[in-house]
Amino acid sequence: MMVVSSGGEHLLHNGLALLQADAMALSGPVIYQLREKGLEAGALYALCRQIAPIIKSSGSLFMVNERFDIALASGAQGVHLPESSCPVDSIRKAAPGLITGQSVHGPASALTSEKAGIDYLLFGPVFSTPSKEPFGPPQGLEALREVCRSVSIPVFAVGGITPDRACACIENGAYGVAALGSFLDAGTLPETVNRFRSFIPS
Length: 202
Prior knowledge:
The protein is an alpha/beta fold. It has a single domain, classed as Aldolase class I (TIM Barrel), CATH 3.20.20. It is built from eight helices and eight strands. Strands 1-2-3-4-5-6-7-8 form an eight-stranded parallel β-barrel, surrounded by five helices. Helix 2 crosses helix 3. It is globular and about 40 Å long.
């Protein structure tokens, strides 16, 4: 289960990402990806420094989107890369201890990422989601299944993922699921994580 931050932390005054991190202690271990492209480097580093020890104490993994330098400096366990990011071998040389994940949109890019040494993949959008509508229709479960079959590393399904859709993603080969919109209410995050888990076969 991967929880992705809102992407709007720079617009908020209540510190949603920090509230989400605090809620991890009650939800059980997850992967938490901080995806805050609107924050300047200094603000992102400061937020990561606050979040990293909270996430670690909950037994969860803390991933920073794209900024491997900030991930390394702040004590995060890993970095999540866009499909069109800098080469992963360069990141491996600079930060060999970081877990690396990458977003992909098809079997070819999934295979390329696996050969480059990526640890896990994020594939989507599987279902319709407002944030991705400008880029075209969702890819669907059949495309998810094709990507999962093409690689041997874990694949997380993303895009329009709800608890009742999680089981179908797992049945089509996904290692896990990732979501953003479902976790915007930090106060209900533990219950939402448990609801996701109830739909995922053990």
